[in-house]
Design a protein that fits this description.
- The protein is built from six helices and no strands.
Amino acid sequence: IEPKRLLGEIENLLDGVEPVAADMPADASLSDAQSPPSEQPIIDSSTTAALAQLGGDEFVDALLKQFVDDSANAMKALANAVAEENVGEFRNSAHALRSAAANVGAMRIYQKCLDWREIADRELTESGELHIHDLHEEIDRFRQELDARTKRAS
C-alpha cells in the first residue's frame, strides 16, 4: 500500500464531504456540533482506528508521517498566499490541507482550515500571519503527539 496514493484516492472520493465524528448521529454536521479546536483531540483515535482496520498500525503510522511531511508544503503555500494577499490561493491551500487533515484525524488542523473556508480579503491582510503562526504551532503539536504515539508503540 502506498500511503500517499491512498490519501489522494480518499481525498478524491471525499472531496466536498464534511467528516462526521464517530460518536455523532449520521445526520449531524461536524460544524453544528464542533467544539473549539483546543478541545479537539490532536490525533483522533476513531479515525486512526478506522485506518488501522484498512491497513494496520504501520500503515497508520506511515499516513500520519506523510501528513506531517505534506503539511510543510501546505504551510509554504499558505504563507505565500498571505504574503501575496491572495485570498483565493489561501482558501484553496487551506481546503487541501483540511481534506488531508480530516483523512488522518488531525481534527484541530481540520477545524482551523475549516474556519478559513470563507476568509475575506481584509481578514487575510490583517490576520493572515497570525493564522499561519497558529497553524504552525498546531502542526508542531501534531508532530509531538505523533512522536509520543510512536514511542508508546515501541
